[in-house]
Amino acid sequence: MTRGELSDAGRAASLRHPLSKVPEVTVYFWITKVLTTGMGEATSDYLVHRINPKTAVVIGFTAFAAAMALQFRCRRYNTWVYWLAVVMVAVFGTMAADVLHIGLGIPYAVLTVFFMIVLAVIFVAWYRSEGTLSIHSIYTRRRELFYWATVLATFALGTAAGDLTAKVAGLGYFGSGVVFAVVIAVPAVAYRWLGLNAIVAFWFAYIVTRPLGASFADWLAWPPSVSGLGLGHGVVSLGSTVIIVGLVAYMAVTGKDVMVRQAAPGPADRAAAEPGADVRGRPVQSGRHRRPE
């Protein structure tokens, strides 16, 4: 991708397509995303330690597959369905990375590099196929497939990277969380003051949310003997779930996750969406502009 192409893509990212299958990127998006990563980590650990690990993985995969099927059946963005899919990706993505390490004995460093390569391959294939990596372009089945493949890869990568810094590098869960909290500020600063492309900044931050949320969830859940606070994985999972449900309900009711300036729909889109209405059929509020993701 050339610098000019990235610049054009960044400008295009400010427009939301009427049939987009993903939410607008707001502060609510980032808070909910980080919480889902912690919830996925805690839930995965709770299940594999409470029941047979193989059974837990089967349950995780089944729930993940069901959530994906529901998401792909929706013709437009649905707040509840979308975030259910993200939560299930968080749980199963954690299990996938843990299975490779615990079940097959693959070191965290190797897994981190492996998932980085997988993610890079997905990005290259996505861009060569569609000409953009903007999440505001997710309104076709193929782009949605690329999007969710990317999301799953980021969760698996984040799991491996978080465990690498916490366990192998010896930072501990809290220290690892602090490191990733600093790292996630890099794309925000670079985008705001250094002209970093919006799409690059978004995916940079999106990848880091996984080890950030998971590190703090592990710190809260694991006992003091392994540098945690000892609240327990069940408590952390339940607490995160309650907050996530509250945030998703707020977004679903207020439409904070979709009320943005929209790209002008083409003829096919006009046939599928009523003029002057957002993706949920409510009137579009004029003058509401947001920065590109």
Secondary structure elements and their pairing?
Elements: H1 3-12, H2 27-50, H3 53-73, H4 79-103, H5 108-130, H6 141-168, H7 172-193, H8 198-221, H9 233-254, H10 267-272
Short structural summary:
With 293 residues, this protein is mostly helical. Helices cover 70% and strands 0% of the residues. The chain contains ten helices and no strands.
List keywords for this structure.
single chain, 293 residues, mainly alpha, 70% helix, 0% strand, disordered C terminus
Describe the structure.
The chain has 293 residues and is an all-alpha fold. Helices cover 70% and strands 0% of the residues. The chain contains ten helices and no strands. Helix 2 packs antiparallel against helix 3, helix 2 packs antiparallel against helix 9 and helix 8 packs antiparallel against helix 9. The protein is globular. The chain starts with a helix and ends in a 21-residue tail after the last helix.
